[in-house]
Design a protein that fits this description.
This protein is mostly helical. Helices cover about 75% and strands about 0% of the residues.
């Protein structure tokens, strides 16, 4: 594959992958789980801190190892089976579910904006997947440039909401102290449940490591893209959620999936609702493209090591465009099936659990490699070592344990789907031997 992705394009992929529908929809869920404005803002900040700590930590591996993506980082540190399981979970569930869920949200918002019958929302979602598949098949360079443009466009409505909200003379109180849950919300439960929901809105940044072999200067640009991207996203999330809470009282935000629309109506009038809907469409469009751009490379990476059936086909990229065509068809075909099945909430919650299990292993890997290979050239070193990696590891363990306690069945399903890859792995190992 050609090194054709610039720092700006990598940064746009990080921001574009993460900022999707969560920035508009999660406020209703989180206020219901925390019951207070102070706790709501706190879990957004805490989610950002954990994500940045994880990004800083994993960036050291990304800069140090001349290999492609988190799959290979796990291979290198723990053994091939762990990298395969991570890639398997990404290939059959994570990327298709993200693409499918976001495309479904796009379809619902699209028919609402243009007054189309609701039954056509799934058709719109599938057409979006097919359209973006075609765009990405044109070539990585083209789709990456488009991602940069879409990322800028999606920030515009968010920036307008934040600026208008901060200077709104009719702000309602949104106290940030004392830090406490609302009536009937215990402190530990409010933090654990709210944090899990907030972290879903940060999900997706690690996928940029799949582009490591295509970034022009991966030793510097990959880590910079992850760190700057996550820092900017955290600031955006905190400011826009604070804006929502100064426009609508918390009882009107709780479990309200139209909170962004209603808040914008108050800020801008009738035009505000349409503005937010257009903003959601642009934001979701960019997120789907970012997940597609990176997701198609997961089966390609696995096939390069002959770990999938028909690896000789899946592990090839188009000679002219550098696009792994078969990998794109696999991920998008599963996404279309998921769109037709519907109901992604449980699935995406489960994937946060699965992905953070591997994220935690990657954070631990930095500590292992510092001990095992002290002479390894590290163009980027995580600052304040070992404090930052420890924050990342503790945060990841908290997420995993909280999910097992609060959503036991969900976590078991997630583990089960991941382990389904083991028979294929050992079959291919036997075949290769």
């Amino acid at each position: 594959m050609k090194r054709q992705i610039s720092f700006g394009q990598a940064l746009a992929t990080v921001v574009g992958s993460v900022i999707g529908a969560g920035v508009f929809f999660k406020i209703g869920t989180i206020t219901a789980q925390t019951g207070s404005t102070s706790m709501t803002l706190f879990v957004w900040i805490l989610a950002g801190i954990i994500s940045i700590a994880s990004g800083l930590t994993i960036s050291e591996i990304a800069a140090s190892l001349k290999i492609n993506g988190a799959i290979k980082y796990l291979d290198y540190t723990y053994g091939r089976v762990w990298g395969f399981l991570f890639g398997w979970a990404q290939m059959i569930v994570y990327f298709p579910a993200q693409i499918g869920a976001l495309s479904s949200i796009f379809g619902v918002q699209f028919v609402s904006l243009f007054g189309i019958k609701a039954r056509y929302s799934n058709l719109i979602a599938i057409l979006l997947v097919l359209f973006l598949l075609g765009i990405n098949l044109i070539g990585t360079k083209f789709s990456s440039k488009m991602q940069s443009v879409i990322t800028i466009l999606k920030i515009i409505p968010i920036a307008l909401i934040i600026i208008w909200g901060l200077f709104n003379p009719a702000k309602i109180p949104a106290p940030i102290i004392p830090l406490t849950g609302g009536t009937g919300h215990s402190f530990p439960t409010a933090i654990s449940q709210g944090l899990l929901s907030a972290l879903f809105a940060f999900e997706g940044w690690i996928v940029v490591t799949n582009l490591a072999n295509e970034v022009k200067n991966p030793e510097k640009d990959l880590s910079r893209a992850i760190i700057l991207g996550l820092s900017a996203i955290t600031l955006i999330y905190v400011l826009i959620n604070y804006t929502f809470m100064t426009v609508l009282p918390i009882d009107q935000l709780t479990n309200n999936n139209n909170a962004a629309f209603q808040a914008s109506m108050k800020l801008f009038g009738q035009f505000g609702g349409k503005l937010v809907t257009v903003g959601i469409l642009i934001s979701v469009y960019g997120a789907v493209n970012a997940f597609m751009l990176t997701g198609m490379r997961t089966p390609y990476i696995l096939a390069q090591d002959n770990l999938l059936p028909f690896s000789n086909k899946i592990g090839k990229a188009n000679i002219h465009t550098g696009v792994p065509v078969v990998g794109a068809f696999i991920v998008d075909a599963i996404a279309i099936v998921m769109i037709l099945l519907g109901n992604f909430t449980v699935l995406t919650d489960m994937l946060v659990f699965v992905m953070w299990t591997f994220n935690t292993m990657l954070s631990v890997a930095v500590i292992i490699l510092r001990k095992r290979e002290p002479e390894l050239k590290r163009p980027f070193k995580v600052p304040w070592y070992p404090i930052i990696p420890i924050i990342s590891v503790i945060g990841g363990i908290f997420i995993v344990v909280s999910t097992i306690i609060n959503q036991f069945v969900l976590s078991i399903i997630g583990i089960g789907l991941t382990l389904l890859g083991l028979p294929i792995y050992y079959y291919m190992q036997k075949k290769n031997n």
